[in-house]
Write a structure and sequence with these properties.
This protein is of the alpha+beta class and 196 residues long. 29% of the residues lie in helices and 26% in strands. The protein has 2 domains: 3-75, lambda repressor-like DNA-binding domains (434 Repressor (Amino-terminal Domain), Orthogonal Bundle), CATH 1.10.260; 88-190, Jelly Rolls (Sandwich), CATH 2.60.120. The protein has 7 helices and 8 strands; from the N terminus they run αααααααββββββββ.
Length: 196
């Protein structure tokens, strides 16, 4: 591997071009305005933002001055990065079961997470499910298919397919499918506190 290719390969994880573009759009600067502020050409800045050119340290220093960030902004490792993908085939492959309520987590990592997401399948004419567990419920619920009956301390709301609810409540609550169809939900809620 030649020197330029090795430099490009070793700098790739830092995503310098993406960070440059994000800074510029956050500051709402055009390339020509940034060029005027830094003394660099718009062509050079465009090549840097699209990773067609590796920036020199003096070039980055000039850009840092305009944005008010240090060089470490471009070279620091991310403190945390997590990406968990659940493919449609996995969700469909579960099949239909006789369970009144089936949880399918959408976060595969065993590590604590600041956010939890799951699909929840409620059987047709099935038993009511209590999502709050006796405490405060904070979540966003999206009805993927079917109809959801939400009973909130005696008040009832019916959500249709495509409806969404944002819930922050201490009221006792139950959810159940309406009618002869099962109900599938996407439920997103705060997760466990993360260690510092």
């Amino acid at each position: 591997m030649n020197e330029a290719a090795h430099a490009r390969w070793s700098l790739e994880p830092y995503r310098i071009g993406m960070k440059l573009r994000a800074l510029r759009t956050r500051k709402r600067l055009t390339l020509s305005r940034l060029a005027a502020e830094t003394g660099l050409s718009t062509a050079l800045l465009s090549k840097l933002e699209t990773d067609r050119m590796i920036p020199t340290l003096p070039t980055l220093a000039a850009i840092c001055r305009v944005y008010g960030v240090g060089l470490s902004y471009f070279f620091s490792e991310p403190a945390k990065h997590s990406l968990s993908i659940t493919r449609k085939t996995h969700l469909q492959g579960k099949g239909r079961t006789a369970e009144p309520v089936r949880h399918t987590p959408l976060h595969a990592s065993p590590e604590p997470s600041a956010l939890t997401a799951e699909t929840l399948d409620l059987a047709a004419d099935g038993a009511a499910f209590s999502p709050d567990g006796g405490g405060v419920l904070t979540s966003v619920v999206y009805v993927i298919e079917g109809r959801l009956l939400m009973d909130l301390g005696g008040m009832q709301e019916t959500l249709e397919s495509g409806d969404c609810a944002h819930i922050e409540s201490q009221m006792p609550m139950t959810w159940s499918a309406v009618g002869k169809e099962r109900c599938r939900l996407l439920v997103v809620a705060p997760g466990q506190p993360q260690p510092a």
